[in-house]
Prior knowledge:
By secondary structure, the chain is mainly β.
Amino acid sequence: MACLIALAVAGVSRAQTTVTLSVPSGAAVVEGNGATTITVTATLSTQSSTATSIVLSLSELTATSADYQLHGSLPTILIPAGDSSATGEITLTAVDDSYFEGPQTLSVGGSGTGVTVNAVSLSIQDNDDRPTLGLSISPREAREGESVDMTFSVTLSGGDPLEQDLDLTISINDPTSEWTVACPSMSTGCTTANLYDITIPADSFRSSKVLRARAEINSRDMIYMYQNIPA
C-alpha cells in the first residue's frame, strides 16, 4: 500500500503559474497625438516566494510596422517576491498618414522563466475619415430575352483614400432566377472564377466592371453590392 501511495503522489504535477498582461481600459495610440505612454500591468495568478521577471514583446496583429514607432526599448517588468503584480511602460507614436485604415491592433506579450504569459491587445486609432462606398449600374434594365452589357461602377466618396486595394463582390438579388450573368464576349481578364469580383485600387476612388446580363423575365433594380470596406 505504501508503494501505491508513493506512486500516486509522484504523478501530481504543479500548476503552471500564469502572468496576465493588461492595459488601462480605453488605452490607445491615436494618429496625430504624438508619443503616447501606455502602462502595462503584469499580474501573477499566484504569488511567488521569488521575484518574477517578464520581458515584454510587441507583435503586429492588424497593424504593420509602418503604422507605429516604438520609442526606446521594451521594458522588463519585475514582480517582487510576495507581490502579485507590477507595471512597466511602453511609449509609441502612431504614424499620421493620409489613409483611412480603421482601428488597428498590436499585441503586447512577454516571456519569463517558469511562467505562461497572456498577451493583451493595444489599439491604434485612425484619425482619417471613413469614405462612403457607392454603386451605380448602367443600364439598370433589360427586356425579356435581351442581353445587355451593364457597367457596374463603384466609388468611394466623402473620406480619405485607402492604403490597400479594396476587394468587393457583386451579388445578384435574384430569388426567382430571372437573370443570367456572364462575361461580355469581348472582355479581357473576365472569367467564371472572377465574374463577380471588382477591386478599387489603393489610393483610388473608383473602379468599374462590365457584365453581360440577360433578363429571362422583365425585371429591374435587382442588383446590389456586398461591401467589405474596413469598419
